[in-house]
Design a protein that fits this description.
- The protein is of the alpha/beta class.
- Helix content is about 35%, strand content about 20%.
- It is built from eight helices and seven strands.
- Bound molecules: adenosine-5'-diphosphate.
- Adenosine-5'-diphosphate binds next to β3, β7 and α8.
- It is found in: Cell membrane; Membrane.
- Belongs to the ACDP family.
- Metal transporter.
- This is Metal transporter.
């Protein structure tokens, strides 16, 4: 792999935002916090092949609150019938939510700091539209700002309105490095 190719990949990345390289939400393997970690669920997890699994509240895939690390499951017996919530709640993995328009390089800087290498990607709704052109909600702005900061998963602020943000994907360091290495050299 040539250095030139990587350099070109890096230049391509400057133009890209998180939504261009993320894994689409429909393809994200997630678990409900209510799911029981029985043999069947354990098999599903291991068949997925992923090491980090977003955990959502109830049956609302838009409300991801936590991450389950496959390594957290090492000490759990198959017949304990413990819930995802118990394990994920106990280990309290940090969850980062970023805006879909965040530049990829900005997120790469965060990943480089090393606290986490995975983030959920959200689309913030235009509140203005839903309120007939009147700009109302600075509570909403506040919520989005808080959500975009690193928060303990369990302390994710409640949205003032349901579905104030919509999750659109998941991104890891792997998605970014992949993009770097796959750059095509094209003549424009
Ligand atoms: P892992 O460590 O689980 O293999 P990587 O960080 O190596 O994950 O990412 C590999 C690819 O899998 C990336 O494209 C990433 O977006 C995607 N990915 C990671 N976790 C999940 C998940 N839970 N569901 C769907 N795709 C995922």
């Amino acid at each position: 792999l040539s250095t030139l190719k990587i350099a070109i990949g890096a230049m391509e990345l400057i133009k890209k935002s998180v939504k261009d390289v993320m894994t689409d939400i429909d393809d994200v393997f997630m678990l409900s916090e209510d799911q029981v970690l029985n043999a069947e669920t354990m098999t599903k997890i291991s068949d997925s092949g992923y090491t980090r699994i977003p955990v959502y509240e109830g049956n609302n895939r838009n409300k991801v609150k936590n991450l389950l690390y496959v390594t957290d499951l090492a000490l759990i017996g198959k017949d304990n019938n413990i819930t995802v919530k118990a394990v994920a709640g106990f280990n309290k993995r940090r969850l980062r939510i970023v805006d879909e328009n965040m530049p990829v390089l900005a997120l790469m800087d965060e990943f480089k700091m090393g606290e986490y290498h995975l983030a959920m990607v959200a689309k913030a709704h235009d509140v203005k539209k839903h309120h007939h052109g009147k700009f109302v909600d600075d509570k909403m702005d506040n919520f989005i700002m808080k959500s975009m900061k690193l928060v303990e998963a369990t302390m994710l602020p409640e949205a003032p309105e349901d579905h104030a943000i919509t999750l659109v994907g998941l991104i890891t360091l792997e998605d970014i490095t992949e993009e770097l290495l796959q750059a095509e050299i094209t003549d424009e």
